[in-house]
């Protein structure tokens, strides 16, 4: 059968926005396979999230148990396999979030499926050739998944969030028999923020090593971000230095963002950083080094001392 | 403790690779090749673990015979043995299934691999391997202590091992989580797990004499046909050239009236 199963990302018992971008891909995939879109919600006490998910996909399979309370790949991959079977799915999709990247390849192995990671979309008006970025986004590869069952993780910035269905679908419980787990979820140290999420925000302000010391992040970047209602990001260098938490890293191996406006402050523009933000609609670079590679990608470049111009920018906005 | 590490021969990630005129391949002629930096982090972690707990580190690579250079680099860092599986280019799934065959023979306690390779950015092989083996996995391993911490300078492993289990701190969305996995397990490494050592000159000399096994992939009896086939390569859409602005006022004006983003 040729149905498409899309796996929701649920955090704190609510759907994460990345889920809706995966639904967009899933709907197009279903058109190409001639099948239906099914959803999968995994967790414990996530019935509300499943019901919300059912306003986006006509059938949601809900896999709940104590062993699924925390997202471990070992348990979640098994739930995905069970759901793919229940949904008669030949395509299994999830957003390429940290969770999606962790669990989907394991599910692919269990399904005997070829997998395309972090894809940007389909190539061509029909068929199932898929485009994905490789070489830190400097090359677009068109790939053909040769197996009957295909697993795909989708790059959230490449797809508009899906609109709700005209009529809500239904939620069906899915019984999953799990093996005894060899993974134990010990703890989660969450970094809480009142700012918009980096991957969802319309505006992102990012800081780099040009800030000279950690204390300057709060002094220079945050007021500008607050003025713009922006999310805050960082280059690898300052995350490595411990100035900001790891999940603020924008880049090839951190988060890929594509806001309407990306302001890079004191960031040189290494290939790996650029890979994470070159999809932004408008890029502004502020750096005192006129030769910094970031200026090659910036729409507007301001060669100046950031300690002078960023506060000026903040006050004049 | 026996730890099996992978090292992938990749084109220098600081250089942009060119696409052949017909889009059928990437031009690697004249390119510099290096070890995938994430795999170097994995080898470094393995060396720290066996220093702390005793044991052996085996470094594996697959592909062109030139990949032996990357294995030797791992041996120069301090690993004990190398295994080179010669083959054509393999997709992530074939890599995982090849590793399964090697693991059947080597029986490591831990497989430590880079989370992704900087050339294809697939981020699949470790997870596929764990799935095929039925082993627990801990991906994107990192640690709380920074790379300039005393622990890092002392060469302490980030992965904690005790009583047949490993505790791994992982970088995830929204923070860091800690998982405990019962060995044997697959662990993939992220950027901030450690700072890999540079091979010393004595290390490089010793590496030349360390055992290196070469296996032709055909002898392993696996189907190497790609599950994910590369069809063609193209350049991403080019951005319009940008401009330099000379003042904050000009910048604000352009963002408002030209770019219309504020």
Structure description:
The complex is a heterodimer of chains A (317) and B (262). Chain A is α/β, with parallel strands linked by helices. Chain A has two domains: 3-173, Rossmann fold, CATH 3.40.50; 203-316, Rossmann fold (3-Layer(aba) Sandwich). Chain A contains nine helices and 17 strands. Chain A has helices at 18-33, 47-53, 73-86, 98-111, 215-228, 236-240, 271-274, 294-297, 306-316; strands at 3-7, 10-11, 14-15, 37-43, 59-64, 89-95, 114-122, 129-134, 139-145, 150-154, 170-173, 183-190, 203-207, 231-234, 261-265, 282-287, 300-303. In chain A, the strands form three sheets. In chain A, strands 9-8-7-10-6-1-4-5-11 form a nine-stranded mixed sheet, sandwiched between helices. Chain A has a five-stranded parallel sheet with strand order 14-13-15-16-17. In chain A, strand 2 (10-11) and strand 3 (14-15) form a beta hairpin. In chain A, helix 5 (215-228) packs parallel to helix 9 (306-316). The longest helix of chain A has 16 residues, at 18-33. Chain A is globular, with a radius of gyration of 21 Å. Chain B is of the alpha/beta class and 262 residues long. Chain B has one domain: HUPs (Rossmann fold, 3-Layer(aba) Sandwich). Chain B is 28% helix and 30% strand. Chain B is built from seven helices and 16 strands. Chain B has helices at residues 37-53, 68-77, 92-106, 125-133, 150-153, 201-207, 248-258; strands spanning 2-6, 9-11, 18-19, 26-27, 33-35, 56-63, 81-86, 110-114, 137-142, 160-162, 165-172, 175-182, 185-189, 212-216, 228-234, 243-245. In chain B, the strands form three sheets. In chain B, strands 1, 6, 7, 8, 9, 10, 11, 12, 13 and 14 form a ten-stranded mixed sheet that branches. A two-stranded antiparallel ribbon of chain B has the order 2-5. Chain B starts with a strand and ends with a helix. Classes of the chains: A alpha/beta (317), B alpha/beta (262). Chains A and B meet through helix 3, helix 4, strand 7, strand 8 and strand 9 of A and helix 3, helix 4, strand 9, strand 11 and strand 12 of B. Strand 9 (139-145) of chain A pairs antiparallel with strand 15 of chain B.
């Amino acid at each position: 059968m040729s149905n498409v199963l899309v796996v929701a990302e649920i955090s704190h018992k609510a759907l994460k926005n990345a889920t809706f971008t995966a639904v967009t891909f899933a709907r197009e995939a279903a058109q190409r396979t001639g099948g239906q879109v099914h959803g999968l919600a995994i967790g414990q006490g996530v019935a509300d999230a499943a019901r919300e998910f059912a306003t986006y996909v006509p059938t949601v399979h809900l896999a709940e148990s104590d062993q699924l309370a925390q997202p471990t790949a070992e348990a979640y991959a098994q739930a995905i396999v069970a759901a793919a079977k229940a949904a008669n799915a030949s395509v299994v999709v999830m957003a390429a979030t940290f969770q999606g990247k962790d669990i989907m390849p394991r599910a692919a192995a269990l399904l005997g499926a070829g997998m395309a990671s972090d894809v940007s979309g389909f190539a061509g008006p029909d068929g199932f050739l898929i485009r994905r970025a490789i070489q830190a986004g400097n090359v677009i590869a068109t790939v053909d998944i040769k197996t009957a069952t295909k697993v795909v993780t989708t790059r959230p910035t490449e797809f508009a969030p899906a609109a709700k269905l005209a009529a809500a679908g239904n939620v069906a419980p899915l019984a999953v028999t799990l093996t005894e787990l060899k993974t134990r979820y010990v703890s989660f140290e969450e970094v809480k923020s009142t700012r918009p999420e980096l991957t969802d925000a319309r505006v992102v302000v990012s800081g780099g090593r040009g800030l000279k010391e950690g204390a300057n992040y709060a002094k220079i970047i945050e007021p500008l971000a607050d003025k713009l209602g922006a999310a805050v990001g960082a280059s690898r260098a300052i995350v490595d230095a411990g100035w900001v938490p790891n999940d603020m890293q924008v880049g090839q191996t951190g988060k890929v963002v594509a806001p309407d406006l990306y302001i890079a402050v004191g960031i040189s523009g290494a290939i790996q950083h650029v890979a994470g933000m070159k999809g932004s609609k408008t890029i502004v670079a502020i750096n005192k080094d006129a030769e910094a590679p970031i200026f090659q990608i910036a729409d507007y470049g301001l060669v100046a001392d950031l300690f002078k111009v960023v506060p000026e920018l903040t006050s004049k906005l | 403790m026996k730890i099996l590490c992978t090292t992938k021969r990749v084109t220098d990630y600081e250089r942009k690779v060119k696409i052949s005129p017909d889009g059928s391949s990437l031009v690697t002629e004249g390119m510099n090749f290096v070890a995938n930096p994430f795999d170097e982090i994995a080898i470094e972690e393995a060396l720290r673990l066996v220093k702390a707990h005793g044991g052996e580190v085996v470094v594996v690579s697959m592909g062109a015979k030139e990949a032996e250079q990357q294995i030797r680099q791992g041996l120069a860092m301090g690993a004990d043995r190398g295994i080179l599986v010669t083959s054509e280019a393999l997709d992530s799934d074939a890599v995982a299934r090849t590793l399964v065959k090697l693991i059947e023979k080597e029986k490591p306690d831990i497989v430590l691999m880079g989370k992704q390779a900087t050339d294809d950015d697939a981020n699949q092989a470790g997870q596929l391997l764990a799935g095929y083996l039925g082993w627990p996995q801990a991906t994107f391993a990192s640690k709380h202590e920074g790379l300039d911490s005393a622990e890092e300078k002392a060469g302490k492993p980030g992965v904690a091992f005790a009583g047949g289990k490993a505790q791994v701190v992982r970088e995830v969305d929204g923070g860091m989580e800690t998982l405990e996995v019962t060995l044997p397990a697959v662990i993939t490494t992220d950027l901030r797990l450690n700072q890999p050592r540079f091979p010393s000159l004595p290390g490089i000399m010793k590496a030349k004499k360390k055992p290196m096994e070469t296996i032709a992939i055909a002898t392993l009896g696996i189907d190497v046909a790609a599950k994910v086939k590369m069809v063609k390569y193209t350049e991403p859409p080019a951005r319009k050239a940008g401009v330099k602005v000379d003042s904050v006022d000009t910048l604000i004006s352009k963002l408002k009236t030209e770019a219309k983003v504020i």
